[in-house]
Amino acid sequence: MKPERFNILLVDDNRADARLIQTAMREVAPRVTIYWVATVEEAKEALDRRDRFEDTLGFDIIVTDLNMSPSDGIELLQHVRHDSKVSATPVVVMSTSRSPRDIDRAYRCGANSYIVKSVTLDGAYEAAACIARYWLELVALPAG
After folding, report:
1. How distant, in Å, are the alpha carbons of 2, 48, 70, 127 from that of 133?
2. How many structural domains are present in the chain?
3. Is 120 within the bounds of a domain?
4. What predicted TM-score, i.e. pTM, was given to this entire model?
5. Which CATH number covers residue 125?
6. Is position 144 within any domain?
7. What's the Cα-to-Cα distance from 10 to each of 15, 52, 60, 92, 115, rounded to whole Å?
8. Which of 4, 13, 56, 114 is exposed most, by the fewest CB atoms within 10 A?
């Protein structure tokens, strides 16, 4: 049985991209709660349930941008995969990069999926629908 609520940690330093993903995800998956942070450091706080995240119940998946500053999605992937408390949490990379080097590096560092961001609303909704269907309905996830 799938959980009634589903928590996603969204890590993206571009506010417009984050809003687009949030809007699309809420439209296609109303039971999702999205926690948006703009930096890898904030993501680490969230994963450690520190400060403003101390009351969260953890995250079912992490959706992260790849190219952020000052730290990037690769650093976040490495952190997640080396932290025993969250190492089993699936990580979906959403990036504008189509570079085979970036895609390969993300998978080698532990990404579970790599999705190229769409620049259109329709494309964002399609990606959100695919993420929601796959991660919320089809796969069995580790217990948080």
Report:
1. 12, 27, 32, 10
2. 1
3. yes
4. 0.92
5. 3.40.50.2300
6. no
7. 11, 15, 11, 10, 14
8. 4
